[in-house]
Each structure stands twice: as structure tokens, then as C-alpha cells.
Design a protein that fits this description.
CATH architecture of the largest domain: Alpha-Beta Barrel
Bound molecules: zinc ion
Largest sheet: 7 strands, parallel
CATH topology of the largest domain: TIM Barrel
Number of domains: 4
Distance between the termini: 60 Å
Shape: globular
Helix content: 40-55%
CATH superfamily of the largest domain: Metal-dependent hydrolases
Number of helices: 25
Length: 627
């Protein structure tokens, strides 16, 4: 039975394939499917039970799309999609991800040069054949070659962008969780650690009835090719060639298994060594006491295995959040300094004084925590989703690309429990998506009216300013100063020299009307590289002018990247974690933003949208004097 998620997946695929077929993302058919998808998104409810007539009553859904949805729900496949799939195999579709190659060019490359996949495209570039095609030239050829390198599209090591992998993994987890007898299920591997690109998806299922799970795996709509089909492990490939490994483990061993399959390798090696030092063995089945040499195999006592937290605790460590498990000092830092040696032979090592900010954060925690709380470690008091009570990069239909009204956007923010909100629609310079000064003033009144209905959420009238090629910003200085809060971001001029990019960012940061910098590099993971600039110089400027660095939670962005976040944290640059929502369905991105910040070791105290409202407003009010 197809689910609502399957319906969205089908429509997305239909949009991609029809764009190739019609040679334009603007074609009537493509736009019809896009409108249907937006309509269904806005509708928000499960549509798998609706008839064609009922479906067409949803805004944007035409009869042709409605029939395809019914066809999918009733029979599991859609004839039109199958036909297009035959014409455009996945390795050909993949070529459409390369910046600089539109659908028209793609068709030309295929018909003139017989290119069907990335390897062949590379060869055509090596043979200097691309430059002779109409509309292309040496410059485009070189650009495309560079783009292929950056995307990492070739060879066995090819990676899938997290924005493609995460929705699929979440969908698989939901589907396996619904199987009778399944106690728990999560995705592990690099995806759980919030890597930006992943090799394959690892799903670990806790159940005493593995056969049902194995059957569901091979029967899954995403499964096109079964690689392994065992009693407790099934591996299959999706149409895009992504490998999914599904493993079923005993519910009692779930913690040990998820820890093992989450990795990283370096983290696991360090944990195993720590276990051995204390006469224990750590593997995918549990943490086992091996101090009594007369015992063998299953006779040896299991110290912990059911949850990861129990295993860390038994190793005298604080729980290590998955995004931190990269073997970059987290094992040493997580050691509980004050812990009694709990009968183990070796006393706990002292936590290294890794970072100034980390030390400070944990010292603070110590002073306010009660005795039964976690013992101090070298880990920072890491930012968590529940600490966040504001979104400070948030669009409404005022933006050309905003898809929900002010009323609807505020309603979902209030329901999420936010305490304050900065509505930051695009400034005038962002062509069709921006608003004139006059429109912005009307918008301010609109927000003020909506504010009356939500006394508990402070609505700030903000703006997403556009940083132009030289670092200039929208409107004039006086007008910009009117906004309650601003985020300034790069949306163009990606190809300038690094020195020019650095200057441009620093110019924006130094402007007294700027409170934060949005999606720092402007990258789209796996699709468009970010701008190149001097990271240290920009972080120093952020610190100097006390401007917050955004961690954007959109999966295609995750920008600033976690390694940049960690460098910012070392300097104690303030951070802000945002969703950059353009629709009411996008608030879930906050979770991804938080996990990216965790991957950068971000302590709660540096994140301005974890602060209480008064502290936050005092910080914003100080801004104009920081020059
Ligand atoms: Zn936008
Ligand atoms: Zn935005």
C-alpha cells in the first residue's frame, strides 16, 4: 500500500523526469505537477484514501495528477512514471544535478555525443567534445568539469547528499516501525552523525520477529534490486543506486547494535580500547565483562547492551550525542571526572582541557546542577532542540518564494511553543522575491495585527538582507535601521575571487544594521559549491562586531558547515540556529540545524535563540553601537 510519503516521492520524481522530457523546468506539465505538490503540502492531510474527484478539490491538483495518485495507491506503480523511467535511467537523471547543464543541454549531449552517464560525460570533456556543441564553449566545458569534481559524482566512492538520504531514511524508519513486533527502529551510520553526504543508509530494527522485517524490506517500494537477503540482514538498492542495509537485532541488544552501526570507526575504536582497559569487551552485541578468565562465550556477564546511554555510563562516560562521534576528542572529553571507579580496575582519566568555551559551559552546569545530575565532563553543555524557543530566519508569502501566509506561519510557530520570532522576508534587492520599502511597511502593520492574536509570542518585523557582490545591502541605511532584527545572506555572485568574497562578507558584518549572517557560504550540498573565502578573517569579524553566525537547518544547506561552526565555537562567536522556512511544513528543519550545531560542538550558551527573550532583546539593542 502506498503511503502519503510515497505520493510525494512519486510527484518529485515525476517533476524531475518531466523536466527532462519537456526540456524545461517551466513547461506547463512540470508546473502542473509542482502546483499539485504544493497544494498537497498545504493540504497537509493523508490523501491516500481520497477518490479522484475528492483529490481534484485540493487546490492545485488537476485531474491528470489526481488519477496518477490513485493509480499509485491502488496498484503501487504509475504507468507514466514507468515509461519515463525507461527513457531516463537513474545514471542519466543524475547528470541533471550538475550545475551548468540544463535539460536542453542534456538532451543535446545525449543525442550528439551519446552520453548516458557521468563517466561518459567525463570522457567527452577529456576529448574536448563538449565545447563544440551549440550554446557551450571552452568556458562552460571547464565549469562543468569542475562541477563534476566538486559533486563527487564519479567512482565507487560516490556519495548521496543528506537532503536526498534523510527523507528516504525517515520514511523507511516510519514504515519499519509500523510492522507488528517491531520494538524500536532508527537509522544509524553517517546519516545519524549528520554527515553532509552519505555512502549508504543503515537501518537497525529491534524485534523478536526478524522474518516480517526482512520480508517488508524486499517488498518495499524503494527496493529495486536485492543485494543480500538473510535471516537478520537485508541489503537492497534503490532506483538511484543507493544501498539500504536493514538489520534486525534482539531488543536487548539494540543499544550495542545502534552504537556499533552508528560509528564512526574512530569513535568505536576508542570506545573498545576504553572497554579493554577496564577488562571489558565492546561489540555489536553488548559490553561484556571478561575479567573472569574461566568463563567463555555467552557465560560471560553482559554489563550493558540495551541502550547506548547504559553502555556509556558503564564506561564512566557521559552520553555522547551521535553528531559528536567522529573521533575528534569526544571520547576523552566525555569521561566523567568525578566518577567513582565503580569497581573497575582503572580510575577514570582526567578530561583534557580541550577548549575554553567547553570548560566554561561545563563549569556553569556544575554550579547550578543538583547532585543527582550528570557529573561534569570535558564536553560542553551541548545545544539541544528543547533549548530553542525562537526562529530568527523565517519567511511568509511576503517573499516571492514564500508559500504560506503570515497568519499560518505565525500559527505554526506559536504551536511549536516559540517565545519570539523574527519574520525576515527578502529585501528589495532579491529581484522577484524581494519587497519594496513601501511593501515592507505595510507588512509591518500586517504583522502588528497578527501580533494582537498571539500575546505570548513576540513577533519581530525583520528582513533577510541581500549581500551584493561588494557587500552592499538593501534599502538605505535609515530604512534598514527600522527593522527589529535582520539576517544578511549571500544569494548571488558565487564566482568571485576569495579575497573579494571575504571583503564582501566583512563589509556586511560591519554594517550596524546587521544582526546575523545567514547561510554563510550559500552552498547547496551536492549541487552547488559555496563561495570561497577566508574563514578565519570572517569569524574574527563576526566576533569583533558581535554578529551571530547562522546554522541553517535546511538539509540542502546545513550552512555554516559543522567544521566552520566548531572554529566559530573555539572563538566564542555567537550562533543562531534557523529553519529559513518558506512554508508551514518546514519547521522540522530546526532539528537538523541543532544536530549540525552539535556536530560543531556548539554549547547552549552561545546560541542566541536559546536565550530568554530579555537577554536576546538586550543583545539586539546593543548592536548599533558595536562598530
Ligand atoms: Zn527565500
Ligand atoms: Zn531566507
Amino acid at each position: 500500500m502506498a503511503t502519503n510519503r510515497d505520493v510525494f516521492a512519486m510527484l518529485s520524481e515525476l517533476i524531475t523526469l518531466t523536466t527532462l522530457e519537456e526540456e524545461s523546468p517551466q513547461s506547463f506539465k512540470v508546473r502542473a505537477y509542482e502546483n499539485a505538490k504544493l497544494g498537497l503540502e498545504a493540504h497537509g492531510e493523508d490523501v491516500t484514501g481520497l477518490t479522484v474527484t475528492e483529490l481534484t478539490k485540493i487546490k492545485g491538483v488537476g485531474k491528470a495528477t489526481a488519477s496518477k495518485i490513485r493509480e499509485l495507491v491502488d496498484g503501487g506503480t504509475v504507468e507514466k512514471v514507468e515509461k519515463l523511467r525507461a527513457k531516463y535511467p537513474p545514471e542519466f537523471v543524475e547528470l541533471s544535478r550538475i550545475p551548468g547543464i540544463g535539460p536542453k543541454t542534456l538532451k543535446l549531449i545525449r543525442s550528439e555525443l551519446g552520453v548516458e552517464n557521468v563517466e561518459q560525460l567525463r570522457q567527452a570533456i577529456t576529448d574536448e567534445k563538449l565545447r563544440d556543441l551549440p550554446g557551450l564553449g571552452e568556458t562552460s566545458e571547464a565549469k562543468i568539469a569542475k562541477a563534476i569534481d566538486r559533486l563527487g559524482l564519479t567512482g565507487k566512492d560516490r556519495r548521496t547528499p543528506i537532503a536526498d538520504a534523510m527523507p528516504l531514511a525517515e520514511r523507511l524508519v516510519a514504515d519499519f516501525a509500523a510492522i507488528k513486533g517491531v520494538v524500536d527502529v532508527i537509522y544509524c551510520g553517517s546519516l545519524r552523525r549528520m554527515s553532509e553526504t552519505i555512502g549508504d543508509i543503515d537501518i537497525t530494527v529491534a524485534s523478536k520477529k526478524p522474518a516480517a522485517v526482512m520480508k517488508a524490506a524486499v517488498d518495499h517500494t524503494e527496493c529495486v534490486d536485492v543485494v543480500v537477503n538473510g535471516e537478520t540482514k537485508t541489503s537492497f538498492l534503490t532506483r538511484e543506486g543507493l544501498q539500504i542495509d536493514v538489520r534486525v537485532v534482539e531488543p536487548d541488544q539494540f543499544g550495542a547494535a545502534t552504537m556499533y552501526f552508528t560509528g564512526s570507526k574512530a569513535h568505536n575504536i576508542a570506545l573498545r580500547q576504553r572497554a579493554l582497559d577496564r577488562n571489558m569487551l565492546l561489540n555489536e552485541y553488548g559490553l561484556i565483562d571478561i575479567s573472569d578468565e574461566t568463563l567463555e562465550g555467552d557465560d560471560r556477564p553482559v554489563v550493558a547492551s540495551k541502550t547506548e546511554a547504559e553502555i556509556y555510563a558503564a564506561l564512566d562516560m557521559a552520553y555522547v550525542e551521535p553528531p559528536l562521534r567522529e573521533g575528534q576528542g569526544e571520547v576523552e572529553a566525555a569521561v566523567v571526572t568525578g566518577a567513582a571507579a565503580t569497581g573497575k580496575k582503572k580510575p577514570a582519566k582526567k578530561a583534557p582541557a580541550k577548549k575554553a568555551s567547553a570548560k566554561k559551559a561545563s563549569a556553569k552546569k556544575k554550579s547550578k546542577s543538583s547532585e543527582e545530575e550528570v557529573e561534569p565532563t570535558g564536553l560542553p553543555e551541548l545545544i539541544q532542540r528543547e533549548h530553542i524557543h525562537a526562529d530568527l530566519h523565517y519567511h511568509t508569502a511576503r517573499s516571492g518564494d514564500g508559500r504560506s501566509s503570515v497568519e499560518d506561519m505565525v500559527k505554526v510557530a506559536a504551536e511549536t511553543g516559540y517565545d519570539f520570532l523574527a519574520i525576515t522576508d527578502h529585501g528589495v534587492d532579491l529581484a522577484i522575491n524581494g519587497s519594496t520599502a513601501e511593501e515592507m511597511l505595510e507588512h509591518r502593520d500586517h504583522i502588528a495585527r497578527v501580533q494582537e492574536e498571539y500575546p505570548d509570542v513576540l513577533l519581530m518585523w525583520g528582513c533577510e538582507l541581500n549581500i551584493d557582490g561588494k557587500g552592499g545591502l538593501d534599502y538605505d541605511d535609515d530604512f534598514r535601521a527600522l527593522f527589529d532584527y535582520t539576517v544578511a545572506s549571500v544569494h548571488s555572485h558565487y564566482d568571485q575571487k576569495p579575497t573579494a568574497q571575504t571583503d564582501r562578507l566583512i563589509a556586511a558584518i560591519s554594517d550596524p544594521t546587521v544582526n546575523s549572517i545567514g547561510h554563510l557560504s550559500g552552498r547547496y550540498i551536492g549541487r552547488r559549491p559555496g563561495i570561497e573565502f577566508d574563514v578565519d578573517a570572517v569569524l574574527d569579524a563576526l566576533l569583533h562586531f558581535d554578529v551571530a553566525l547562522e546554522v541553517n537547518g535546511a538539509l540542502q544547506r546545513l550552512d555554516a558547515a559543522s567544521d566552520v561552526v566548531r572554529r566559530a565555537v573555539d572563538r566564542e562567536v555567537k550562533l543562531v540556529i534557523n529553519t529559513d522556512s518558506h512554508h508551514t511544513s518546514e519547521l522540522g528543519r530546526m532539528e537538523y540545524g541543532v544536530r549540525t550545531a552539535q556536530r560543531g560542538w556548539a554549547p547552549k550558551d552561545l546560541v542566541v535563540n536559546s536565550w530568554d527573550r530579555d537577554r536576546f532583546l538586550a543583545w539586539v539593542a546593543e548592536r548599533p553601537s558595536r562598530t
